[in-house]
Amino acid sequence: MAIVTSVPLNTTLADLDESVRALLKRELGRHGFDGVEVVFDAPTKEWAAALSSPTVNLFLYDIREATDRRINEWKEQRGNGHAVEHRPPLRVEASYAVTAWTRAVEDEHRLLSQVLAVLYAYTVLPDDILAGTLANGSQPFPLDTKTASGRSEDKADFWTSIGGQYKASVDYIVYTSCDPGTVFERGPEVRTATLRLRDSDGAPGRMEEFHRAGGVVRDAAGDPIANAWVALPDVGLWAASDAEGRFRFSPLEPGAYVCRARTADGGEARGTLEVPGAGVQLTLGEKPKATRKRS
Predict the structure, then answer these.
(1) For the chain, percent of residues with pLDDT exceeding 70
(2) Burial per residue of 155-193, b for 16 or more beta-carbon CB atoms within 10 angstroms, e otherwise
(3) For residue 49, what is the enclosing H or E element?
(4) How far, in Å, are 55, 63, 159, 172, 232 from residue 119 at the CA level?
(5) Which residues pair with 94 in a beta bridge?
(6) What pairs with residue 235 in β-bridges?
(7) Could you read off the pLDDT of 241-280 as tens digits, one per residue?
(8) Which residues are registered as beta bridge partners of 170?
(9) What 8-state DSSP symbol labels residue 226?
(10) Residue 20 host element (H or E)
């Protein structure tokens, strides 16, 4: 059992900026708002003084977990004798303060009104404007949005934090996900299957019991060995290990069996397969363990 962490490349926020920019550029252009810049800067006094064209600014002022969308269950996948549990993604709400900047207040209000209408119209960001990693399906959930929601009291006023002059703004939230990059690996799981047969014509209570059992072949480093020959010499059964080093025998009566493994290069391993039981691990390079014959 092991927890494996592999942090993926994550450009979600930058790709989200480009996606929202593409949406606003497209929709504003349809209504005659040509030449409007869409930026994501901190709207300081110095920045505002340097503007030379109509501008829509989306300042990302808050990033936090979307607790109402939290997923607690790990997702389990099984296959090839292994079980892998995937940590759920972190649901995140990215909050923007959206402002419009023009020379005349009337034009500014017209622009901000149109931006409000565009953002409110799309409760989910459309696929055709998604950029970067967002466009290749990396997000496991739709990119839901919320427009003009009330600000929580614990959210700092970004105007104060940047030293800017207060300006009317629209709160805009996009719900994204962060890949956890963590899995919990279990296995290989080796179990015994039991088949019980009752003779309908025989004496009451008469029953025969057969089992399917096996194990795994590994090298001294713990890595699985494929295509090893595995035999139960007491009963004349043999099998070959698969890509994961696993092997199975069937049918077997209850008891303890000498189990031997051999590879093409002459490596050998030996152990005892208890039936029924949890299976046996045969490790090449280890000193053979004492075995006992089938009962």
Answers:
(1) 80
(2) eeebbeebebeeeebbbbbbbbbbbbeebeeebbebebe
(3) helix 45-49
(4) 16, 19, 22, 8, 70
(5) 63, 174
(6) none
(7) 998 888 989 888 888 999 999 998 888 999 999 888 878 9
(8) 98
(9) S
(10) helix 12-30
One-letter amino acid at 212 equals R
Residue 158 C-beta-side C-alpha neighbours within 13 Å = 23
Fold of 189-283: Immunoglobulin-like (2.60.40)
Cα gap 116→178, rounded to integer Å: 27
Give this prediction's pTM.
Answer: 0.61
8-state DSSP, 25: H
What is the C-alpha to C-alpha distance for residues 195 and 252, in angstroms, rounded to an integer? 10
Over residues 235-240, the mean pLDDT reads 90
How is residue 292 written in tokens? 């006992």
Backbone CA torsion sign across 167, 171, 174, 177 = positive
* CA angle, 205 then 207 then 208, to 5°: 165
Question: Domain extents for the chain?
Answer: 2-185, 189-283
**pLDDT given for residue 105 in this prediction:** 93
> Which segments within the chain are labelled E, that is strand?
2-5, 37-39, 55-65, 75-79, 82-86, 90-101, 145-147, 170-178, 182-186, 193-198, 207-218, 229-232, 237-240, 246-252, 255-262, 268-275, 280-283
Contacts of 174 (CB under 8 A, 6+ apart): 16, 20, 93, 94, 96, 125, 143, 144, 145
Angle (nearest 5°) at CA 117 between 160 and 140: 85
Provide DSSP, 139-199.
-SS--BEEESPPPPTTS--HHHHHTPPP---EEEEEEEEE---EEEEE------EEEEEE-
Residue 282 near residue 261 (C-beta atoms within 8 A)? yes
